[in-house]
Write a structure and sequence with these properties.
The chain has two domains: 73 residues, no CATH class; 88 residues, Double Stranded RNA Binding Domain (2-Layer Sandwich). It contains five helices and three strands; from the N terminus they run ααααβββα.
């Protein structure tokens, strides 16, 4: 079978077939050069992000689109993973007494039978603010809250007082 016959089966000319081969060869060559250049930059600056890398490649005369660069980096596992920013707020490895879980197996039949409390922090310019929450375990509704600048017990007690005051007496039984 001739190449003309095979190309005709797919609706292409021989010229289109050779043009496709040439484009793939040129593309793989430019991709190889691009990856080598990326490797040079990554040796100097290992955490350099994709957009800054793209700007540097543009300055060096590598005309590659941003999306093509990100696709190429992704295919070769060269994208830099973002570092997760978090603060450790719980330390369970301590010498003090650890209390058992008293609500394991507790049936939640209706609202206001079980409240759970939590304290979280909110980062501000000048430091932190602490938010104490009392949540109804059945409905997942916040029934009491307090925002305070210190992590003292008064904030949690005010949140509990708010929850008690907002809940009618007959619902608490």
């Amino acid at each position: 079978m001739s190449l003309s016959f095979l190309c005709g089966l797919f609706g292409y000319t021989r010229q289109a077939y050779y043009k496709h081969l040439r484009r793939n060869r040129e593309g793989s060559l430019s991709d190889t050069l691009l990856l080598e250049r990326v490797g040079c930059y990554r040796k100097l600056m290992p955490r350099l992000g994709g957009r800054k890398l793209w700007h540097l490649l543009q300055q060096d005369g590598f005309p590659v689109s941003r999306d093509r660069l990100f696709t190429l980096l992704s295919e070769n596992n060269l994208l830099v993973k973002r570092r997760k920013k978090y603060s450790v707020t719980t330390c369970s490895r301590h010498w003090m007494r650890k209390y058992p879980n008293l609500i394991r197996g507790f049936d939640l039949e209706r609202p206001h039978r079980l409240w759970v409390g939590d304290i979280t922090y909110i980062s501000l310019k000048g430091g932190f603010a602490y938010l104490a929450l009392i949540t109804d375990a059945y409905s997942k509704r916040i029934v009491g809250y307090d925002l305070n600048t210190t992590l003292e017990r008064d904030g949690a007690l005010r949140a509990l007082r708010m929850a008690i005051d907002q809940t009618p007496q007959q619902k608490r039984q």
